[in-house]
Specification:
It contains eight helices and two strands, in the order H-E-E-H-H-H-H-H-H-H. By secondary structure, it is mainly alpha-helical.
């Protein structure tokens, strides 16, 4: 019994590592500088969403946090890496929680899309707060300037999660048609 549990743990670790690598690449491959100049817009949210659907909330959160953290750390934005670790992980947890609650069969793309939107709204609000802290440390200690500078990034963050949805929805539909997802309530509950 313990041997099968170790195999399952190794499998989970491998799944998380693979998805973290995919998220890292998706974030790193296209970087459009934000209007404030201290951040960037990317297509990584698409893989955060896909990872949360494939792996479930908890494993998806680990992959999203690790992939996002490493992308910022190694990609020239280390000051954002701790914020990204938390923000991306919570995004995956939101998707996993909504899908678990309302989409037990894993086949309702509308529920998936709603979960992506809710996670995206979280991201915009969370990066607004993170931006205020970062800008307060790097651009100006004046709180009003830090807030004004952080507000400049809202349209880019909205565009980022919107593009993420546009990419993630067809990918999740294709993956679901491929049979990669288990469609029983008990199986999905165990994965999320």
């Amino acid at each position: 019994m313990n041997k099968s549990k170790n195999i399952l743990d190794l499998r989970s670790l491998s799944q998380i590592a693979m998805m973290a690598a995919i998220i890292f690449v998706a974030i790193s491959i296209i970087k459009i500088p934000s209007p404030s100049g201290t951040g960037y817009v990317n297509i990584g949210d698409s893989m955060v969403f896909v990872g949360a659907i494939i792996l479930g909330g908890k494993k998806g959160a680990a992959a999203a946090g690790i992939g996002g953290f490493l992308s910022d750390l190694l990609g020239g934005y280390p000051i954002y890496s701790p914020f990204t670790l938390v923000i991306k992980a919570v995004m995956a947890l939101i998707v996993g929680a909504i899908v678990l609650k309302y989409n037990h069969t894993g086949k309702n793309i509308i529920i998936d899309t709603i979960s992506f939107i809710v996670a995206g709204i979280w991201e915009v609000i969370a990066y607004l707060g993170a931006g205020i802290i970062v800008y307060g440390l790097t651009v100006s200690t004046n709180l009003n300037v830090a807030i004004a500078t952080s507000l400049l990034d809202i349209p880019g963050n909205i565009a980022q999660f919107a593009v993420g949805i546009v990419i993630a929805v067809p990918i999740t539909v294709l993956l679901k048609k491929s049979g990669i997802f288990h469609t029983t309530d008990n199986t999905l509950n165990k994965t999320i």
